[in-house]
Structure formats: C-alpha cells, structure tokens
Amino acid sequence: MTMSVLVAGATGKTGLHLVRYLLDQGAAPTALVREESDTSALPSGVQLRQGDLTDLPDDVCAGMDAVVFAAGAGGSSSSEMTDAVDRDGARRLIDLAQQAGVNRFVMLSSVGADQANPSGDLAHYLKAKHVADEHLKRSGLTYAILRPVALSDDGPGGEPILGEAVDITASASRADVARLLAEAAVNGRLDGQVQTMQSAES
What we know:
about 200 residues, eight-stranded mixed sheet
C-alpha cells in the first residue's frame, strides 16, 4: 500500500528535493501549499493540499500516514513571523497530525535547537524551533527530529554523518538532508531519535 506523506515546505529548496526522494521511494507526497504558492517546480505526481501554517484547517492531515515539517519563515523574517510559522504553525500541525491518527511526524529542525535559551543572531529562531521540537516529543506521535548544521545547495553526497561525530562548523547539503527526511518518513530510519547531521566530508 502506498504511503501518503504530507510535506509542509514542499516548494522550498529542501522541500523540492524531499518530494522527489519520496516519489523515488514509492511514497505519495502531498504538498501543503498556500493559495499564492508557486508550485511550478513541483514534480508530477505530487498532490496539492491548500493550507497556511498560520491558519491551518482542522482536516489538513486527514488520510496521511506521515507528515514532514520542512517549512520555515526564513532567516530574514520578522520575529513575529518566525513565531507564527516555526513555533506555532509547527505545534498546530503536530496537534492536527495526532488528532488525525498520523503514524509518524518528521521535523526538520536546526543545530542549536537543543537549547531552551540560545544566544547569538539566530537565538529567536532557535528558541522557536526548540519549543516546536519539545512539543513534538511530548505529542505521543512516533517522531524523528533532524538538526542539520548550516545548509548548502551542494548536490547529494555519501552517507551523512550523524550524532556526536558531527562538526557543527561543517555544512549539510539540502539534498542530503532531504534524502534523510524521506527515509525517516517512509521507513522509520530515525524513529524516536533527535539527530544532528552534516554531509559526508569530501
């Protein structure tokens, strides 16, 4: 039976890689898109479901086996939009997934989101991600949380490096991140885990 996977952030740089990997693995991805979203780059075979992370409909997760949150307000967004999307939107999607009986929820987080009170330029963003991650861990859903280091637009590499061996000053290609998110969603590779990640060193 084909696995149905809802993807928040499917039209973003990482999300476009992600839906392709889901298709490659035989899953049926559905892109969560706003009415004004540019969906022209999505590959054929991706279904669309309308919804805004700041105002999600109650039935947005209906019929889904897994949900992947790969969205983000973006580094240049206001604190209010970061909270609305990365914190509150994520928490609302988690709650709706739980209510819909979704089997697995995969979260694209960030290195540094393990801290409740981070510092530095990304402090507000990392705090929002931390709150969302903690909400997911408490939700009762089968979850996977991936915290890559700085993202790059490099192509796919070898087997990514996870956990304590990660160099936080390294980079993680969006393609490698997406492949790991797809594996986590489809086959449960990271079930119950919170993992930092970097691409394999060249």
